[in-house]
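User: I'm curious whether this sequence folds into something compact or stays loose and floppy. Could you predict its structure so I can see for myself?
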Amino acid sequence: MSDEKNNNKQYPNSVTNISRSPHISMWKVLIPVVIGLTVVVWLFRREFSVKVWDSIHFDAHVIVCILLAWLCMAGRDFGLTWRFRSLTDRELTWWQAIKVNFMCEFTSAVTPSAVGGSSLGMIFLHHEGIALGRATTLMMTTLFLDELFFVVSCPIIVAIVPYDELFGFSHTKFEIGLRWVFWIVYAVLFAWTLILFLGIILKPEGVRKALIWLFGWKLLRRWQPAVISLGDSMVATAKSLRTRSWKWWGEVFGATALTWTSRYLVVNALFLGFVPAANQLVVFARQFVVWVVLMVSPTPGGSGVSEWLFTEYYGDMLGNASVALIIALFWRIITYYVYLIVGVFLAPSMLSGRTARPVVADLEIAIDSTTADSDIKNKQDDRTAAEK
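Assistant: Here's the prediction. I'll summarize afterward.
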């Protein structure tokens, strides 16, 4: 119990903020569904052709490829479950890790893409018996691993696949805008990954001090408490990660690579069924562009934006917008709507506030966090007085 207390002392702000489980109401689930279906209906009215639908025969080949797409998504879930097991040193059972995985995906589906499932991941880990402080460390580690995968993989994909196949296939405003958004988001992603690398691997104390100094400016001071919490999380995460072996890093990054690769291969499986003549390497490579762009989607889970982006971006490879729309619909059902359905059933128990940890431990954490919050407030008051 003393180790648990020490872990949580390192995250006073985080513990205070997440000690009370949030409530996800049904309308937050319905909003992304309504947005997505509205865009799909609009696209169907604009692009869909009954003749194209009649020309598609759901024979054994197509059905097998659809099942293959589901299998790829199962590989993605296995990768994330495996990663949660590895990060917690096998403290989570397979079933517990699966529940955490599905709930993270569920929160990703009902929140804007920029927020993501990691925003509540520590609550789900805590529900399964992981101390709050350590859960924060683990979720920051998953964030770093995901960002690192994108930062490393995207240049490799751009180097392997002809640039014109990714961005130069047309000279429309859509293609030009997509290219600019992709590289801007990638630049921000690269900078954020670099900060995380310095903050949780190389110079955690230095990054923490730099962030606190930067957000001490008058215009940014309102965000300083959150930045202090972030800096504390980085320092604690660094202490945990520096003791890890190369074998451990290889395992968690391998699970991350399996997760994202399996997610992308869902589209490859669908193209293999509906458009077998398509260049599978290009289909796979364009998924990197799609997911990077969707990181800045303002809608919950990228609903609406995903369907439209898919039909526009892959349209040139299909020659028919109706086929693109059909593939997009299967893609979203497999990679998105299924998590909404599963999450609705898991959410009541996972967000009930009941954890696998003793109540006495929670009370001790609350006392520790209250004391720590008071110390931080006193330090901030002293800093403000000194500036005056």
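Summary: The chain has a mean pLDDT of 78. The longest helix spans residues 173-202.
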